């Protein structure tokens, strides 16, 4: 059974340099393995590194390097769909750029799928390896790949897993730690190449209660997203809750929906135009402080770097989570009905474009 | 330890960080001691926290038959302490530092964090031992950066000491840990961190020597008696998990979580200082 181990990467050459060659060597015991690396328009030295250091593996067809020049920002689901489509194995497994497969991982996958072909396998014990999902090619196509409505970070793996289960496959767990090592890095790194981080303009917060606040994220393209942020842990503060039940998510947005609109700047005032035709004007009091016109509501601009990162990470995750939760509620397991992983790629440094 | 069968009382005491030492010495320490002596609670985990204002989080585990009595005593004792020692300070919400408004100081709230995860590697038990050491390390002096720094150095040095005899290549293992940390940093970050480490090392050479001597001698002074408990705990973990690197990384991570230090790479700096100090010293 041919196994394809797929890695997508944008500006993570520093990770690939540590993992890819080692992963190739660690899986030499299983001959029918291919490695796919999709360079999603990296601006670092990933291409040079592969060309200089991994040519022997490209020549032996152990490794195939694809480059996609189309996108300015990283899109996890779309890039993975491309890599999976380019894979030629019967079993396809995502291996994040910071992941180590460990020795004999491909052979281990072969053993698992030989024992039970109506399964898929995933790692669920640590966030660093949560993207390690192995699935048959036919099942990948059957559910329509990763949901490309999820354009940010988070929940794309959970969604993929839940839809595979919904399609009738049994889930198996990859729990042998020898296959699950990963380089550690921060949440900031995780979303560094995403649209959100590179295009936000301001973040405003207005405190309502100890457990709810209005949050508005303004983007440079004059679009804003607003929601009432809820801390669901803070709803019962007076007496100990001794039950061991845990909340599915500690934070959420009221109604599980972002309100979208456009904004403009008039002198120092921010004017928000909602899709409902409502207009809100925030008059600047001082550098980081705004007052809503006609109301006593105060908004503060977030200037703390840590909080900005947290807010953008939260926005990224929550936006994907909303799609995930809608998919959970849907009867269908198939997504991307108009196709997925569509793009133009270049194989092994050739200038001939491949339309996929 | 049958922790699973117990209940967890999760409470947050909001008080300015400059007063944390007084809260611990005069309220939390005697309260915990009393409850344990009466067998009303089993273990506790203490975290320093800054969400919605400076606060100390306590997760206290009690058996089902003692939970009501324990809860009543805990609630009354803490509220009584807060009432007797009011502060005029009010939380500052500017500039904004969190998603939600700060809680008023001198207030007690429940359920603001999840129960401690069972995890693996006896995580809850390690957290309990860390909490024990932390509470016992605090005196009438305010908990400042220097205190947290020294505490972390003592705790990490003790892990090294526990493995010192049985692992001949211990310094290589510590070096491996530092190399892997180095690899996760950019060249610029690494350079500035190394400069910082050298500066701290040169400034605190004598203190580092004292810490190493304290840890390696088997008769610590009265104010460091908690160190022996910690060293015994580490020796116990080492029996179950003999890999130094795993123990060092995991335990250091748990200590950092409980100290909740804002200092980036705090743990990296202390590890590097210990490496330098131990490399230059004959023990």
Question: How would you characterize this protein structure?
Answer:
- The complex is a heterodimer of chains A (356) and B (283).
- Chain A has 356 residues and is α+β, with helices and mostly antiparallel strands.
- Chain A folds into 2 domains: 3-190 and 345-355, Alpha-Beta Complex (Spore Coat Polysaccharide Biosynthesis Protein SpsA, Chain A); 195-234 and 248-303, Lipocalin (Beta Barrel), CATH 2.40.128.
- Chain A contains 10 helices and 20 strands.
- In chain A, the strands form 3 sheets. A 9-stranded mixed sheet of chain A has the order 8-6-7-4-1-2-3-19-20, with helices on both faces.
- In chain A, a hairpin with a 5-residue loop joins strand 17 (289-292) and strand 18.
- Chain A is globular and about 70 Å long.
- The relative contact order of chain A is 0.14.
- The mean pLDDT of chain A is 93.
- Chain B has 283 residues and is of the alpha+beta class.
- Chain B folds into 2 domains: 3-116, Alpha-Beta Plaits; 141-279, no CATH class.
- Chain B is 56% helix and 9% strand.
- Chain B contains 10 helices and 4 strands.
- Chain B has helices at residues 20-37, 67-84, 123-137, 145-164, 170-183, 187-203, 205-216, 226-240, 244-259, 266-279, and strands at residues 7-14, 44-49, 55-62, 107-110.
- In chain B, strands 2-3-1-4 form a 4-stranded antiparallel sheet.
- In chain B, a hairpin with a 5-residue loop joins strand 2 (44-49) and strand 3.
- The longest helix of chain B has 20 residues, at 145-164.
- Chain A binds chain B through residues 18, 183-185, 205, 207, 209-213, 215, 229, 231, 233-234, 236-242, 244, 246-247, 250-251, 288-289, 300-304, 307, 310-311, and chain B through 7-11, 52, 67, 71, 93-101, 103, 109-115, 183-184.
Key features?
heterodimer; A: alpha+beta; Spore Coat Polysaccharide Biosynthesis Protein SpsA, Chain A; Lipocalin; 2 domains; 10 helices; B: 283 residues; alpha+beta; four-stranded antiparallel sheet
């Amino acid at each position: 059974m041919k196994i394809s181990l797929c890695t997508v990467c944008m500006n993570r050459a520093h990770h690939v340099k540590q993992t890819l060659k080692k992963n190739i060597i660690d899986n030499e015991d299983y001959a029918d393995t291919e490695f796919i690396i999709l360079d999603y328009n990296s601006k670092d030295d990933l291409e040079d590194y592969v060309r200089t250091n991994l040519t022997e593996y490209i020549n032996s067809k152990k490794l195939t390097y694809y480059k996609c020049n189309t996108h300015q920002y990283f899109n996890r689901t779309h890039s993975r769909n491309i890599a999976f489509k380019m894979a030629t194995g019967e079993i396809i497994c995502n291996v994040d750029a910071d992941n180590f497969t460990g020795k004999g991982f491909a052979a281990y996958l072969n053993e698992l799928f030989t024992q039970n072909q109506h399964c898929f396998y995933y790692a669920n014990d640590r966030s660093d390896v949560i993207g390690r999902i192995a699935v048959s090619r036919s099942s990948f196509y059957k559910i329509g790949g990763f949901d490309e409505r999820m354009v940010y970070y988070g929940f794309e793996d959970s969604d993929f897993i839940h839809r595979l289960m919904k399609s009738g496959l049994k889930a198996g767990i990859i729990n042998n730690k020898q296959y699950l090592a990963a380089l550690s890095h921060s949440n900031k790194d995780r979303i560094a190449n995403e649209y959100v981080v590179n295009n936000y303009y301001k973040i405003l917060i207005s405190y309502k209660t100890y457990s709810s606040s209005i949050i508005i994220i303004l983007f440079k393209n004059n679009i804003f997203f607003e929601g009432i942020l809820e801390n669901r842990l803070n709803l019962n503060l007076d007496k100990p809750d001794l039950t061991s039940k845990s909340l599915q998510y500690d934070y959420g947005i009221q109604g599980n929906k972002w309100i979208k609109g456009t904004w403009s700047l008039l002198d120092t005032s921010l004017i928000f135009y909602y899709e409902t035709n409502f207009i809100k004007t925030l008059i600047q009091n001082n550098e980081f402080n705004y007052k809503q016109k006609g109301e006593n509501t105060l908004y503060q601009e977030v200037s703390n770097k840590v909080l900005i990162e947290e807010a953008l990470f939260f926005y990224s995750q929550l936006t994907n989570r909303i799609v995930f939760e809608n998919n959970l509620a849907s009867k269908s397991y198939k997504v991307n009905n108009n196709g997925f992983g569509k793009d133009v790629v270049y194989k092994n440094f050739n200038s001939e474009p491949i339309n996929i | 330890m049958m922790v699973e069968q117990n209940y967890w009382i999760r409470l947050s005491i909001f008080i300015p960080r400059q007063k944390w030492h007084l809260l611990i010495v005069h309220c939390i320490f005697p309260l915990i001691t009393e409850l344990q002596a009466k067998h009303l609670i089993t273990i506790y985990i203490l975290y320093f926290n800054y969400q919605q204002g400076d606060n100390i989080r306590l997760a206290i585990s009690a058996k089902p038959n003692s939970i009501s009595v324990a809860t009543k005593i805990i609630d009354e004792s803490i509220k009584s302490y807060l009432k007797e020692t009011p502060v005029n300070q009010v939380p500052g919400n500017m500039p904004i530092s969190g998603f939600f408004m700060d809680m008023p100081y001198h207030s007690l709230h429940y359920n603001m964090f999840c129960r401690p995860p069972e995890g693996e590697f006896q995580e809850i038990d390690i957290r309990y031992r860390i909490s024990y050491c932390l509470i016992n390390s605090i005196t009438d002096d305010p908990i400042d950066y220097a205190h947290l720094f020294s505490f972390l150095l003592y705790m990490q040095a003790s892990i090294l000491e526990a493995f010192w005899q049985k692992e001949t290549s211990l310094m290589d293992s510590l070096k491996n840990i530092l190399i892997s940390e180095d690899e996760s940093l950019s060249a610029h970050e690494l350079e500035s961190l190394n400069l910082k480490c050298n500066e701290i090392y040169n400034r605190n050479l004598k203190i580092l020597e004292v810490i190493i001597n304290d840890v390696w001698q088997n008769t610590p002074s009265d104010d460091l008696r908690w160190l022996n408990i910690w060293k015994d705990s580490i020796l116990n973990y080492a029996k179950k998990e003999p890999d130094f690197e795993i123990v060092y990384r995991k335990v250091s991570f748990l200590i950092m979580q409980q100290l909740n230090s804002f200092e980036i790479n705090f743990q990296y700096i202390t590890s590097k200082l210990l490496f330098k100090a131990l490399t230059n010293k004959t023990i």
